[in-house]
Design a protein that fits this description.
The complex is a heterodimer of chains A (647) and B (615).
Chain A (H helix, E strand, L loop, with lengths): L1 H18 L13 H23 L3 H16 L1 H10 L1 H4 L9 E11 L5 E11 L17 H9 L2 E10 L4 H4 L9 E8 L6 H16 L11 E2 L19 E6 L6 H9 L15 H4 L4 E12 L7 E13 L10 E3 H5 L12 E7 L9 E4 L5 E6 L2 E9 L15 E4 L11 E8 L5 E10 L6 E9 L3 E12 L2 E2 L4 E5 L8 E9 L3 E11 L15 E3 L3 E7 L1 H4 L21 E7 L3 E3 L9 H24 L11 H13 L5
Chain B lengths: L1 H4 L1 H13 L1 H18 L7 E2 L5 H4 L10 H18 L4 H10 L3 E15 L4 E13 L8 E9 L6 H15 L7 E8 L1 H13 L7 E2 L8 E9 L7 E5 L10 H14 L2 E4 L11 H20 L15 E8 L9 H16 L12 E5 L2 E4 H27 L8 H9 L4 H23 L1 H7 L4 H18 L4 H6 L4 H25 L1 H17 L6 H10 L2 H15 L6 H22 L3 H20 L3
Classes of the chains: A alpha+beta (647), B alpha/beta (615).
């Protein structure tokens, strides 16, 4: 039945796309049966999520929405433009609503160090619902490969990131979307799944093929089920962590072979729109490169009667001032990507470039050409930021040259970045190959507020943690975590999992230490390069950090007095997730260069030397009597038979 | 083994060994020394070769252009150093930041157990400054270190200048896969110790340091740079580290390969390489080079700032620029290119340096002697001890020839008394403990009562306790068990000989040079001492061959090898300062030579002294 409806909607869809040429997204007239069911479910779901947001890190979702609302209300000039550019969002309800929607944007943030941060986000919305087992066979903007994965493996949420490099929080501030070095994958399965581990195994193998990555190396020894750190980001009422799987591969190296399949998921590929900037020779000539795919269910509208799937593809890259030659503090799209923008992706309902000009309110820090009249404000990471906006769907943006080459030229190198309120680092202490100690340092730079953080550590089994040595100290005093979830490892089966809720006092460093012993592996368990060391994945720190906006209650810079007496609750804290650096730990390693010699020598010594020496030491030797002659022996036998003592 | 299980043949073998014991021992000793001297003979040694594939076949280009600018920076550094009268911390921080590094500082304080008169320091306060070049797209798991000490006076300014120049040049390159840490450490080894302890968050020596803020993961290799003139004639490679540890031979090979490629004269132990190995002077040159390495290694002290890295399993070496009266000079740009090449190759490493040897001796920079070649020399010396022990054992178990009442004799022999053996052991070890603890403990008292400085007090107390150990009542067994028996001293000697064998064997495994030098002097003592030899002559020989005198001779010998012979007076002063340095090295960096000598070797030697005066 469902299949038939689908096919009818496919027909409709083709008709639509033929007749309506300008409206890009296709539309749907009759809601399917599945939608009704969801509509019945949904009120409950939304209340659930709201309850969650009050306490748990799931606030992230709300934060993002708030941002968007802000953008719409604050940027007066922008709303006008949006009305013309994106007809889908304001069309009256009588017109059938679009089925798929694609948006693309690029945010560029000039950093104080002279580096530049570019963040791409591509969002594909798909109004379908196969959570309840509907079969979908028609795909338009949503990539089929991922759609099939979601339906086959009953995935509720999927987050995967590939990162090359480490995000330097102290120099670059907070990223829009954090990710650990290497590959990270976390998936919420639907609660109908019975064999989660089996599904997970298959899923990782399939994803490994899709993204050309070594995700197939994810197995039970590096998979954990965090109890609190990773909550669903989309709507949904599943919080039972039995349906969650989290794994990282800190050693994964990201390169063009991962970028190409990632680009293929975009509706326009790398042929048009912002994606033409994604040239690997430039993206990998950078200080940091991270690409991610996030799939989650989201509400379709304000009422949240129906859900749709959101695919968010993000790519973050930092270009370095020094290595890109000349050392001139000047950046342009061409210098960054060796391409300029000429058009938006025709399938996109919105296509924008944002330049973060918050640090440059008077225009004396850097100059931006071509200038744009469009400004937008948003609260990002608890900070009110101002952006210049370039709308690529407008021809006027490209000017007479028919290409947009944004140029940012610094005028002075003064100014300091606000220190991030939360950052962390981790290292291995000690020397020798027997024991060691993992130190995790968490810095709270807020001058007067303490806040709780959730620390997640997943340590491979070959570092045997001495959990009784776990100490948490801040400001020289012991700091008792209010929540500890520890799952001990099993050799060759599963890793250690340690989750803690720790309160960070204001303006302090909190140090978490735990000692470990290095295991001696079996000789087949060593990697081909055992002397390189073994990786321990990043620890994850999730927190609700007090917002910077709420922090400056005294300085009333250009704001009306009535607006700022009480710190506003809405922005009082924001969700941050940061990752520490992975660790490289050396394990005791046999000398593999001459195993043959060693084995031979040892065996010889043991067999020959030890055996005979033992013999010599334990026996007492005596000179043997010469054996009696034959006649004497016979005589003795006879005497024995007779019962007479022998001769 | 069939030979041994046949009692008759075993008897024959044993009687052969006991009869020819002395000649065999002599031959072994000669053979051991000869073998050792042969190690420096070039046909018997191996040419060095690069074992690590990641460094061998990969080609790198050296393009460092800015030697002159580096020298200018060095002069600027010198000016600021003079102005700040010490480490110009602020200037260094600013300069490193301007070069695009992440800069951090670490302050440390260390109170020495007694004043160091060589370097004139007692309460040491200082600051280390280091900048980290973050490798692009690397997750902070691996790092390399380039360090230059900030020395007092006009020394090493060029090294710091070159370090900053290299930092600037390296920063603009994209190819780094490992973070590079540029470290300027104050108060040479103490600063380095503070930094390394801070980096690895250990505290082995009780130093106060502020924790480090920035790290780069596990350090794979380190080079320390010492450069005090604008142009140099040659570069010297220093390998010997703490407790005689050596870096992987591939690091030396890397240095040698780049010196060859770029055309810089390179030396080891300050000795150039010669091609005339078949001539006597060529051979003696190689012997000198090797003996210098043996002496330095045996001293167990770090001979450059790199020496402390080795404890943390970080391969490290010091490169010293030497400016002598040679005509051909090398400028700073060339040294910069050499270092750039070395760092690019180290950057290519996929694993820690592990392919090549960790135990070796170098008679020249292009030849080496591996552990398999030099160990037999020590083995030949050690076998003497085992032969003597066997001889004593046989003497103890075989009943005397002429026995009337054999039963009683056997009973007496089967239970050798423990007490006469135990008391000298305990007494000599207590003397050792006193030698280890008292000099530093009683320095205040000594200064109060005698007109000496603290340092002199410590050294003289040590010598006094050492000498007093000789005069201790050694015949305690007479109080306990009446007259000392013939059997008593044999048991004691058997114990002492086996003790020495184990002690020397373990030492030689860890620090071959120290083990060999000790074996060279102690083995003859152990072999010949009995209560029946002429007392005065033997006592004289015993004192001459005691560890303290060995050290004295080593001082003179070392000066001779360095072609800086000293008079007896100077030598004696040098000897005193060497003792104080040894004690300082132990408490500052954890060098193990002083406790080894005081707690184990000296008591062992006292046992032989005891045997000599057995009554």
């Amino acid at each position: 039945m469902a299949g038939r409806r689908c096919s009818s909607s496919v027909l409709l869809l083709i008709l639509w796309s033929l007749s309506v040429f300008i409206v890009v997204s296709s539309q749907e007239t009759t809601p399917t049966g599945g939608h009704h069911e969801v509509a019945a479910d949904n009120p409950q779901t939304t209340t659930e999520t709201e309850q969650q947001t009050a306490e748990q890190p799931a606030v992230e979702e709300r934060e993002w929405k708030a941002t968007e609302v802000e953008k719409a209300t604050l940027g007066d000039a922008e709303t006008d433009k949006q009305a013309t550019s994106a007809p889908g969002s304001v069309t009256p309800s009588s017109v059938p609503r679009p089925k798929d929607d694609f948006q693309e944007e690029l945010v560029i943030r000039p950093l104080h160090s002279g580096d530049i941060y570019a963040s791409f986000q591509f969002r594909t919305l798909w109004e379908t619902d196969f959570m309840k087992g509907n079969k979908v066979s028609h795909y338009r903007l949503f990539p089929k490969s991922l759609g099939q994965v979601i339906s086959k493996f009953s995935v509720r949420e999927l987050h995967i990131s590939f990162t090359q490099g480490y995000w330097r929080t102290m120099q670059w501030g907070q990223p829009f979307l954090p990710s650990p070095p290497g590959a990270e994958l976390w998936v919420w399965f639907q609660d109908t799944v019975t064999d989660v581990d089996g599904m997970w195994k298959e899923l990782t193998n399939v994803l490994s093929g899709i993204f050309c990555a070594s995700l197939n190396f994810i197995d039970s020894t590096n998979t954990v089920q965090p109890s609190a750190s990773f909550k669903p980001l989309g709507i949904g009422n599943v919080t039972d962590h039995r349906f969650l799987r989290y794994a990282t591969l800190p050693r994964e190296i990201v390169c063009t072979e991962n970028l190409t399949p990632w680009k293929k998921l975009l509706p326009c590929g790398s042929k048009a729109g912002l994606a033409i900037l994604l040239k690997s020779e430039k993206l990998f000539h950078s200080s940091f490169h991270s690409q991610a795919v996030h799939i989650r269910p989201v509400c379709q509208d304000q009422d949240c009667k129906t859900t749709s799937w959101e695919l968010r593809q993000t790519l973050n890259v930092i270009f370095d001032l020094h290595t890109s030659g000349q050392g001139k503090r000047e950046w342009s799209l061409f210098k960054m990507f060796s391409r300029t923008l000429t058009e938006a992706c025709p399938l996109a309902s919105s296509s924008k470039v944002y330049i973060d000009i918050t640090d440059d309110p008077q225009g004396d820090q850097f100059e931006l050409t071509p200038a744009t009249p469009l400004l937008s404000q948003a609260v990002v990471m608890g900070d009110r930021r101002t952006f210049s906006v370039y709308d690529l769907t407008q021809q006027i943006t490209f000017g007479t040259m028919r290409s947009l080459n944004l140029l940012i030229r610094w005028k002075s190198s003064e100014g300091h970045m606000l220190r991030p309120l939360l950052h962390a680092e981790r290292y291995v202490a000690g020397y020798g190959l027997q024991t060691g100690e993992i130190h995790t340092l968490m810095y709270n730079n807020h001058p007067y507020r303490s806040f709780p953080v959730l620390l997640l550590d997943s340590v491979p089994w070959y570092l045997r943690l001495y959990i009784h040595t776990l100490t948490v100290t801040s400001k020289g005093k012991e700091n008792t975590p209010s929540y500890i979830h520890y799952q001990p490892s099993k050799d060759r089966v599963r890793p250690h999992l340690l989750e803690m809720l720790v309160q960070l006092p204001p303006n302090s460093v909190t140090e978490v230490t735990v000692q470990f012993e290095r295991a001696l592996l079996k000789w087949t368990e060593y990697t081909p390069d055992p002397n390189h060391g073994f990786y321990v994945g990043s620890s994850v720190i999730s927190s609700l950090v007090p917002s910077i906006v709420a922090m400056d209650t005294n300085s009333s810079q250009e704001r009306p007095l009535f607006s700022n007496f009480f710190p506003c609750k809405e922005e009082s804290s924001y969700f941050v997730r940061i990752y520490t650096e992975p660790l490289l730990v050396n394990l005791p390693t046999p000398d593999f260069s001459m195993p043959y010699n060693v084995i031979c020598l040892t065996c010889t010594v043991v067999a020959v030397g030890y055996g005979s020496l033992y013999n010599l030491l334990t026996r007492s030797f005596q000179i043997e009597e010469p054996s009696p002659g034959l006649a004497k022996r016979i005589a003795n036998i006879i005497r024995k038979m007779r019962g007479v003592p022998p001769l | 083994m069939g030979l041994l299980s046949d009692p008759n043949r075993r008897q024959a073998l044993i009687s052969l060994l006991t009869r020819l014991n002395a000649p065999i021992c002599m031959v072994c000793y000669m053979a051991g020394v000869a073998w050792f001297m042969g190690l420096a003979f070039e046909p018997f040694t191996l040419r060095t070769y690069m074992s690590e594939n990641a460094m061998g076949s990969t080609m790198v280009e050296e393009r460092f252009p800015a030697g002159e600018r580096a020298l200018a920076t060095g002069r600027e550094f010198a000016a600021h150093k003079k102005k700040a009268d010490g480490m110009p911390v602020d200037w260094l921080v600013k300069t490193m930041q301007a070069r695009g590094l992440e800069v951090f500082t670490q302050s440390f304080t260390r109170k020495l157990p007694f004043p160091d008169e060589n370097k004139e320091r007692y309460l040491v306060k200082g600051t280390n400054v280091y900048g980290i070049l973050r490798a692009p797209r690397a997750p902070r798991t691996e790092a390399l270190v380039l360090s230059a000490p900030c020395s007092p006076g006009d020394n090493n300014n060029q090294a710091v200048g070159l370090l900053l120049g290299l930092a600037q040049y390296f920063r603009n390159q994209i190819f780094w896969a490992k973070d590079i840490i540029f470290l300027v450490n104050e108060h040479d080894l103490i600063g380095m110790q503070a930094w390394l302890e801070g980096y690895h968050h250990t505290n082995t020596t009780g130093m106060d340091w502020s924790p480090l803020q920035g790290r780069g993961g596990s350090i794979q290799a380190a080079l320390s740079l010492e450069l005090s003139s604008d142009v140099i004639t040659s570069l010297d490679l220093v390998l010997e580290g703490l407790n005689g540890q050596l870096p992987n031979l591939d690091l030396a090979n890397l240095f040698y390969a780049f010196c060859q490629k770029i055309g810089v004269l390179c030396t080891i132990q300050g000795k150039l390489q010669r091609n005339d190995w078949d001539s006597v002077s060529g051979y003696s040159h190689a012997v000198q080079t090797m003996m210098l390495m043996v002496m330095k290694q045996a001293s167990g002290r770090p001979w450059g700032d790199h020496g402390l890295f080795l404890r943390y399993h970080i391969e490290a070496a010091t490169i010293k620029g030497i400016n002598s009266f040679r005509q051909f000079k090398t400028d700073t740009t060339t040294i910069g290119r050499l270092l750039e090449g070395m760092y690019r190759k180290l950057n290519n490493l996929l694993e820690r340096l592990h392919q090549s040897y960790f135990f070796y001796l170098m008679p020249s920079l292009s030849h080496f002697v591996s552990i398999g070649y030099y160990m037999p020399a020590f083995g030949l010396l050690a076998v003497i001890l085992l032969l003597r022990a066997l001889d004593l054992w046989v003497q103890l178990v075989t009943p005397p020839q002429r026995t009337e009442d054999g039963v009683a004799d056997i009973e007496q022999q089967s239970s050798p008394e423990v007490l006469p053996v135990l008391t000298p052991l305990v007494i000599s070890h207590l003397t050792g403990v006193a030698l280890y603890i008292l000099p530093i403990r009683f320095q205040d008292m000594a200064v109060e009562h005698f007109p000496v400085s603290e340092t002199e007090a410590v050294v003289l107390t040590a010598i006094a306790i050492y000498t007093a150990g000789l005069a201790l009542p050694h015949n305690t067994h007479r109080l306990l068990a009446g007259e000392g028996t013939e059997q008593g001293w044999k048991v004691l000697k058997l114990v002492a000989v086996l003790y020495l064998a184990v002690l020397l064997g373990c030492t030689a495994l860890i620090n071959f040079s120290l083990g060999f030098i000790l074996a060279l002097t102690l083995v003859p003592v152990a072999a010949f001492v009995t209560p029946h030899v002429p007392k005065v002559l033997s006592a004289f020989i015993l004192v001459i061959l005691s560890p303290a005198c060995t050290l004295l001779f080593s001082v003179f010998f070392f000066q001779e090898l360095q072609e800086m012979p000293v008079s007896f007076q100077e030598g004696w002063l040098l000897y005193l300062s060497v003792i104080s340095q040894g004690i300082l090295d132990h408490s500052l960096y954890g060098s193990l030579v002083y406790p080894l000598i005081a707690l184990l070797v000296y008591p062992c030697w006292l046992l032989f002294w005891n045997i000599l005066f057995w009554k």
